[in-house]
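Tokens as discussed.
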């Protein structure tokens, strides 16, 4: 029995594949469940993220399935390196996962010419997409696409808290 309702049971890849991501429960599903499920202390879960986390920690696929837990991959740690066209690209590896039936998160490419206003607009687009899909988010992660470069960068990723102005909401993040 699969733990996550949106992860394919088989994929046409025979090499070792290690994927990281985040489990989530759509807001609509959380609202239906929140009055009937309590945490280990007997209290109702406060957020969909907490319920998804508690569901995965139960280590029981039936619990995750019953709570409609989904998985969104955000990085391929190992795999697809035999294809030189995508071996050094995080976004290309995630696109390959999408070809295999994984739900992947929306992403935008920015470069040094991207203005703060354009970044704000892209953040708003991501928030709109998440809201329309019922996916709770409180932040966005910005990463370098080049895997080799991100391994040498002083700050390989930053988190952007979406409820704060851009100038005060970013912080460096450890590599993942």
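Sequence:
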């Amino acid at each position: 029995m699969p733990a996550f309702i949106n992860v394919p049971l088989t994929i046409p890849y025979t090499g070792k594949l290690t994927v990281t991501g985040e489990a989530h429960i759509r807001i609509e599903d959380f609202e239906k469940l929140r009055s009937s499920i309590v945490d280990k202390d007997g209290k109702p879960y406060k957020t969909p993220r907490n319920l998804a986390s508690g569901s995965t920690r139960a280590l029981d696929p039936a619990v995750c399935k019953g709570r409609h837990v989904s998985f969104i991959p955000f990085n391929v740690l190992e795999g697809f390196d035999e294809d030189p066209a995508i071996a050094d690209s995080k976004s290309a590896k995630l696109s390959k996962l999408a070809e295999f039936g994984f739900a992947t998160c929306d992403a935008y490419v920015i470069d040094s010419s991207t203005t703060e206003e354009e970044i704000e607009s892209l953040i708003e687009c991501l928030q709109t997409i998440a809201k329309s899909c019922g996916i709770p988010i409180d932040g966005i992660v910005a990463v370098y696409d080049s895997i080799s470069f991100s391994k040498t960068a002083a700050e390989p990723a930053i988190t952007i808290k979406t409820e704060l102005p851009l100038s005060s909401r970013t912080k460096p993040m450890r590599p993942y």
